[in-house]
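QA checklist item 7 of 12: single-chain prediction sanity check.
[x] sequence parsed
[x] length recorded as 212
[x] structure emitted
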Amino acid sequence: MITITLCIIILTCVISFTAFSNEKVMEDLIFYPPAITTRNEWYRFFSCGLIHADIMHLAFNMYSFYLFGDMVERAFAQLFGDKGKILYILLYGLALALSLLPTYFAQQNNYNYRSLGASGAVSAIIFAGIFLYPTIGMGIFPIPFHIPGFIFGALYLILSAYLAKKGQGNINHSAHIWGAIFGIVFIFITAYFLGQFNALANFFTEIAGYLR
């Protein structure tokens, strides 16, 4: 079955592989804040999610997206019915842009800054999944056993905040954090108002049951 998740993965892989061997495509799509500030190239908030630094970067993002995307996409169909597909696309697309807003405001005049990858949107999907299914087992290499999603999520955010504050490396940890937060907020608002489902109450009920 062709799902929205699979379509996004195929599109991202095709464009990423094209950009690997075409510097112009890479430069035209990459998140480059000065180009947004001076040339109003706002599309870069979205297009940067279609390209990646290398095959490992692409593989890690798309594998993580595949693991959670299918689950979240099915949950949207159950919660929202016919509106589920549109809302799922909105979640992914808006997360690409909104997760980069703090980065944009911090780097809008930095001509040496560039960022790429779908990590913000993937984080939104992962944390939407954790919010809906907080006790789902998740593995962390090299720990040889699974831990529940709500613990994994907390550890992930703490580590990302620490690394963002440290400011080392080429990974945009800010996008991970804000993407994750957006995924949770999006689920809470849309589920409550469009699906008549209290995701926050369900989150704490599931955790309480797990800890009993």
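[x] summary fact logged: The first strand starts at residue 137 and ends at 139.
[ ] second reviewer sign-off
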